[in-house]
Amino acid sequence: MLGVSRCVMASIRKELSLAADSNHVWSALGDFGAVHARLAPGFVTGTTMEGETVRIVTFFNGSSARETLVSCDEASHRLAYAIIGGRATHYGASAQVFDEGPGRSRFVWIVDVLPDAIAPYIDDMMTRGAAVMKATLEQPPVAP
After folding, report:
1. From first to last of its 144 residues, what are the pLDDT tens digits of the chain?
2. What pLDDT score does 142 carry?
3. Other beta carbons within 10 Å of 45
């Protein structure tokens, strides 16, 4: 008889209520190569693209991650990405924007990560990133 082991994966969720139009928020989120400029400036200090689907992001603390775009769904305002390599043996993330009425939206960011031991670090980074995203996204769009 084969033994079955159960593996529990940390799933971290950040949800932001934003005083910002959902199309404005999606425009920033969906611009995969400009996370450092449009979504989380200062938290992400640089982004280098490798083709159209891989970005190397550098964070405020000097750490970096190689993120691969998994899915970008315009219709549902949802983006999914993965990190391969680094401290995590598994890192899958998604972010989605929901319309909450005129000038309001909800931003939901979920990360599933293994090993569970790095979840507190990821949670702290996401908390910091979410605060920067909220402040950035609630600023009025700059006219061209």
Report:
1. 444 445 578 999 999 999 999 999 999 999 999 999 999 999 999 999 999 999 999 999 999 999 999 999 999 999 999 998 889 999 999 999 999 999 999 999 999 999 989 999 999 999 999 999 999 999 976 666
2. 67
3. 15
Q: Say if residues 25 and 18 touch (Cβ distance below 8 Å).
A: yes
Long-range contacts made by residues 133-138, C-beta under 8 angstroms, separation at least 24? 133/16, 133/39, 133/40, 133/43, 133/107, 134/16, 134/18, 134/107, 136/28, 136/38, 136/39, 136/40, 136/41, 137/16, 137/18, 137/20, 137/24, 137/25, 137/28, 137/39, 137/107, 138/18, 138/19, 138/20
At which residue do the structure tokens 């920033």 appear? 28
Give the pLDDT score at 135: 98
Closest Cα to residue 104, out of 28, 14, 16, 20? 20
Q: What is the CA angle 29-94-125, rounded to 5?
A: 80
Three-class SS string for 41-89? ECCEEEEEEECCCEEEEEECCCCEEEEEEEEEECCCCEEEEEECCCCCC
